[in-house]
User: What shape does this take?
Amino acid sequence: MLSERMLKALNEQLNRELYSAYLYFAMAAYFEDLNLEGFANWMKAQAEEELGHALRFYNYIYDRNGRVELKAVKEPPKEWESPLAAFEAAYEHEQFISKCINELAALAEEEKDYSTRAFLEWFINEQVEEEASVKKIVDKLKFAKDSPQVLFMLDQELGQRQPQLPGLLLQSEG
Ligand code: FEO
Assistant: This one.
């Protein structure tokens, strides 16, 4: 049985994961407007992954006999100054999410809720990967500066990213 405090914190993280998906959809839309389809593809795959994260929290709450409470999801920004600014914002966001996951783990330890602590292990590892993959793109964009050729090559590269959760409805038909 989850404590009230733990349940509230898990529901808050579920909301943050949904916001993460919203944020990356907003970034995908921004890149669509710039005709950077590879960047948009990468962001859509990222958004899809975030829905998967939300689903993990959703399922876990029910596995522990809790109740999911869905709060309003904050509206994300629509515009960024540049592709670099968008990825820097994504990196900052992932660092914030890592902090939230660590705080959840600390709470689970404080409450001696070892099941939740074990559940969070996957997220702790995932955040290392999330931060690293975004940071790599930030660095490449810094290197590209204003070179359209490098931006084009990077767009091709990011267009290769495949969605990781084929079971979700976001995959396009064909
Ligand atoms: Fe769900 Fe990108 O952290």
Remarks:
- The helical segments are 4-33, 37-63, 83-110, 114-144, 148-158.
- The pocket of MU-OXO-diiron is lined by residues 17, 20, 50, 53, 94, 97, 130 (CB under 6 Å).
- The CA atoms of residues 13 and 19 lie 10 Å apart.
